[in-house]
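[job 0412] stage=fold_complex status=start
inputs:
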Amino acid sequence: MKPFQYLRPKTIAEAISMATDYPEAQYIAGGTNLVELMKRGIASPSKLIDINHLPLKKIEHRYDRLRIGALALNSDVAKHKSVLSRQPLLAQALLAGASGQLRNMATVGGNLLQRTRCSYFYDLALPCNKRKPGTGCGAEAGINRTHAIFFAGNGFGGNEKSLCIAVHPSDMCVALTALDTEVVINGTGGERRVLLKDFHRLSTLQPELDTNLQPGELVTAIEVTDNAFAQHSHYLKIRDRASYAFALVSVAAALQMDGGRIWDARMALGGVAHKPWRYWAIDLMLRGQAPSEKLFREVAEHEMQSAKATAQNAFKIKLTSNAIVAALKAATGIS
Amino acid sequence: MDIDHDAIPPDVPDEDRRFFLKQSMFIAGLSMAPADFLQAALAPDDGPVGNAVKVKLSLTVNGKRKRISIDPRMTLLDLLRENLGLTGTKKGCDFGQCGACTVHVNGRRTLSCLTFAVMQHGSKVTTIEGLSDGEKLHPLQEAFIKHDGFQCGYCTPGQVMSGVACIREGHAGSAAEVREYMSGNLCRCGAYPNIVDAILEVKKEGTKV
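[job 0412] stage=fold_complex status=done
writing structure:
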């Protein structure tokens, strides 16, 4: 590991000014991903800005929205009463991820900013466009069982060539994408807000960039506007072992129902793309309909028409389709 | 002097409770000390001091305050094992995948391999060595022996630290719940059924852990 200087800012402004003054610096919060990246030589900041002592841990409901500070721990968010009562989908997704120890360390901001777990990204001896731009994608013709099936251009007239077929590893972000979460970002120019769907990037260009965060910017909070999905939401995660594994495929489904019919529907998929994959057409397809397995099967197969398998992950297309059906059945309570 | 036991937050685990009492007595003692000494002792903490080669920090390990000078790259795990001689905490994968390095930081179970020691300046750390009361084993340690919750024993300190936290968090209600909430601790010998039995028994007996 390269030597680094440890910095502990007392205010948000001080942290941002440190990160702006030193382009080689990196923020550290829980450290559950960054410490590994530093040990392996994938990240080598010359200065480490420890933001854990900034006042960004608060979880509160005010007016029409739930605001969660970027330093709130995953374990604290998952058991917070406002989260459980207003956005249970978020709590379900958090508890489906990582382990008790990791959830005690990992923060909401860090969860947004974690890097992919693609094995080519972690092996310095192999090519990887994300780790070392221009070296190629090792997974494209290599071991790609767990890799993406949705790419830029899917559903909009064909697949664009992707420079990286890694998937985003987060469960939390899948639920938050379905819930149309806003990310609050602070920088030298003040505060700005970005919808989570626009926060992460696809890999058509510059796959080394996971997000649209600018140098020096700091994620300070996320905000979820109140909705009517609490009674009919479900997070389904499919993985290679029963617990403590990244998703092969995951589905976050959030529905609003009344009188036996669906009136609003949001869905995001995990483990299938370079960022949490929002299923945009689902609201149009389900609105006004009564839930049934037949309807859900049609809806699932519609989205999967634009999926594109690599040599080893064709199974994901069928698996994702089945997972969408199962998640919608669980969310609507039909058997 | 009198200690107000009710003033101790109820969710402070036992090992921290003992420390809290000692600390309260220490602060009470200070109140009789000259004013300038008191001011120095309670001055606001500016964090660890140093550069990229050495950094000075202090933290509390098993109730004892430690002041150390280390390379900022040192993880909490390496600090415990290499500098403080607390080799009960084990290094398994060193990448947060196995749980062998689990310790409690400020009462929460944490992976000591994935946090830099310097980040824990001012923290209270409890390791497996601090869980027992001298020679008297913790109830979960006794239960691991009774239920044969190990073969080679390498993952055991992490399993015990995680198991105690699992009970305190209220996630030891059933075998399925224990398995889910203990999934971050791997055992390559496969002692899982016995580990689950040990945790469930301590939970069922209602012994304060």
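[job 0412] summary: The mean pLDDT of chain A is 96.
[job 0412] exit 0
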